[in-house]
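Protocol step 4 of 5: obtain the predicted structure for the target chain.
Materials: sequence only (see below). No template structures provided, no constraints applied. The aim of this step is simply to have a reference model before the mutagenesis design in step 5. Sequence pasted as it appears in the construct record:
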Amino acid sequence: MKTRGVRLYGENDIRLEEFELPEIKDDEILALVVSNSICMSTYKAVIQGARHKRVPDDVAENPTITGHEFAGEIVEVGAKWQDQFKVGQKFAIQPALNYKGSPYAPGYSYKYFGGNTEYTIIPSEVMELGYLLDYQGEAFYEASLAEPMSCIIGGYRAVYHTEINNYVHNLGIIDKGKTALLGAAGPMGLGAIDYVLHAERRPSLLVVTDINQARLDRAAALFPAEEAVSQGVELHFVNTQVDDAISFLMELTGGTGFDDVFVYAPVKSLVEQGDRILGNDGCLNFFAGPIDKKFAAEVNFYNIHYSPTHIMGSTGGNDNDMRESLIMSAAGKINPAIMITHVGGINSAVDTIKNLPDIPGGKKLIYTGIDMELTAISDFAAKAKESPLFAELARIIEKNKGLWSVEAEKYLLHYKDKK
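Step 4 output (structure tokens):
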């Protein structure tokens, strides 16, 4: 069968094209991809091409499908898996396969397996690992965003604390402790706020910082202080582009410093700020992935030795993290839509990926079965006069506090089917 998809051929060479998918084997599954959110990791793979560790050396001759944050429905099941998976079943993918030590992953490494395509063939290793995940929710975008949410959840679980005189590392943030999210008014930071406020283990104090006041204002509107209080959390949004920001942050803790600090932007001064506001036995998670291999910052080794503070980093999440995200989304405990600022069709994916660092806002969501220019959700109303589609989407968005929603997704997909 034929499908349209965005394939990687080399450095800065991605193409939207129609190509033939082979018949599936007995140990494979054919799936319809409905949505794929664009990740900065895809941009990094595109600018590096075959130099990227997950991209095969022969990608120029055997192009790979881009995109790894995707969800859809199963269309055909090979004989090996017919007792476990059914046609019509909704799914999400845990892309961090690490199958038998291989770095290969969907969106980087496979000719027929990725998210920026109408149809994809899921190889046997995904099912063997248990990484084809069942999804019971209504909205496909929530399942697409389960992957970035799983990274957030993984980071939350990966921080650690110690016990005096015992060689023990206790994983996870301090329950009812003091947590800071630095540079966190962007899409991943918003997802982190949502998760921290609704996870079983929550801090008593949560401080979110950024230097962009507009982004902070939007975050504060999405997460009102009174809602946080109902969850047992004292929530503050702080613009740190002021003199003596460190002193102000320390004052919020009563001078003790923070138990857990997450750095959501690869900025030297932000890492150093995070190090300086750590309290006794505090842990800093450098969550942001830098492109610069020589990225470095100064940290206080006196505190590491005597306090003792901890510096670590995390990237990605595992299948359990994704399952938690899917369950919480389906139950309405978290709302991944807060991360989405733009929506488009498969025809807009190439330009979106290539220009991702220069497109403001949060997550860019692609519906792979339609053609639609990438459009900021905030611009829907302005486009209402020129398109009945945008007119109705704008109405739906307005009644949903400016956020993408199940209703918006269903209308968009139904509108496509009517055309």
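Step 4 remarks: The chain has 14 helices and 19 strands. The mean pLDDT is 95.
Proceed to step 5.
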